[in-house]
Amino acid sequence: MHNRLGPYLIDEQIGRGGMGIVYSAHHEDSAEKVAIKVLPGGFSTDESFRVRFESEIDALKHLNHPNIVQIHGFGEQDGELFYVMEFIEGRSLYDIIKHDGALHWQDVMRFSISICKALKHAHDRGIIHRDIKPANLLLTTEGDAKLLDFGIAKLYGSNNLTADHAIVGTADYMAPEQTEGARPSANSDLFSLSSSMYAALCGKPPFSAPNVPAIIHKVRFEEPVRIGKRVDDLPVDVDHLIHSGLVKDPAKRIPTAMAMMHQMQAILDGFKQLMPRQTPGIELLTSDPTTEVLPEVSQDHSKSLDDQTVTGDYDSPPQQFDETITTSTGPTTSPTGESERRTHYTEVDMDASLESESVDADKAGAVLAIILLLIMVSGLAYGVWYQLRPLDSNQLITEIEATSSQNEKLRLMSEFISRFPEHEKAATIESVFHRLKAQDELQRFRKRVLNSKITTGLSANELRIREIWKSEDTAEKRIGSLLGFTLMGESGSLIPPLAQQLIDELQAEEDQRRSQIQTQISDQIKQLQAMLKTDPEKAQQVISGLIKAYGDLAWLDDEINTLREMAE
Length: 568
Hints:
- By secondary structure, the protein is an alpha+beta fold.
- The chain is 50% helix and 10% strand.
- A hairpin with a 5-residue loop joins strand 3 (20-27) and strand 4.
- Helix 7 packs across helix 10 (236-245), helix 19 (475-483) packs antiparallel against helix 20 and helix 20 (495-534) runs antiparallel to helix 21 (536-550).
């Protein structure tokens, strides 16, 4: 363990991961407490990495924002590269979810607004985070949120690495375009933030699987289960917001952190009167805080701190790419003694970096206060006019297309139908209105039948559907039990569409399960083919066991036939 790094005296190790070791430390003169991350050994001998390191860390001096963990400086000592960060009193979102469980949606909205502010600040300066995940979101004891490790993913993913198809990030939260090796954009960060919000609400990320390739496949090609189906009493606007951030096509995703922040604030403001909360901010989440910069390290160092992800029930192995700490050419050896000669520490001059933006604080504050007052007054007047103005047909259509809130969309459609029945688009809008209305009614019906703790007032058929859905039977058995309800001819009844909806979900789960089993057996077949040459006796035992376990499943006929041929 180091005794000092630069002008800082080391106190203790507080974290270890694939991207380095984290120490708590204090300045030898000022006693200021900091966190120091030391990069894995060997990188200082790679000249190209050294150049990227100093360039990227130095670039982060432009990120001066209360919701971004501040970089104080960087350096090299004893052949190891390191950088110094502010020390945060609080807990990571990963740690909170793992130990305390899922969060209330209002708390998720509040800390996510802070993260959006941080992202806007960074994106405005052309800096992409690239690895947003619960382990990099810190909730402070003061009830705020901070974003950690800005630009570090890029550091490990140089242009050369990208060209060699290396992928940097955490699979569970990575945007589809990142898994394909494409250059990430600002809304790649928004996809990852949406995934982290999803995990905060229900305890697991939207895409999870036993291994990285399976997760990547889901991220690229599968749609996640709607968060509203996993969380009781979740406002439909929250469901829409998160899933608009999880759209595969970056061009169709929420465009900016500012837009996402405004939507979250609007959702919170809309529910203030209906659902007041006694706990301000996110103080609820830090009632028993521990002091840490990263999630608490387990004694099993094979699961690195930086590699932790919110996969499944938090007991699954982390799904971090191994490529995050590799280079395309490998470190180059430096002459003996070069690391000692290069020992140095550079303080990040935040004041100098912002010199062009600085003005006399008192004068600027006074001017800003006057401007803000004028904006507030004019904004209030405009808001009153805006709310009361009658929209024409084209404006209504624009509003209908722009809103992500289903309730608001239904309200606007109803207004359009009543005011402009002769409009050329009236029939189309009316058709969509009735379809959305039916979906909304079905969602409310589903919640009442399946998710409500109150069962009084439910019919015998509704109780039976509830019993089938909550049973421990296999998906196949539950599908068979529900089929009869899809054929009910009750006029206006929501039972048939509910039963069909549940069948579709169960079938999707069953298809996914079968696909995973097929993939696993196919992988085992490849391994067994090699094992037949080195240890044929053991291979035959495994083959026999697989045939015995899966031989009666018709959907595995191809794989079982291959195994039987291998057994001959």
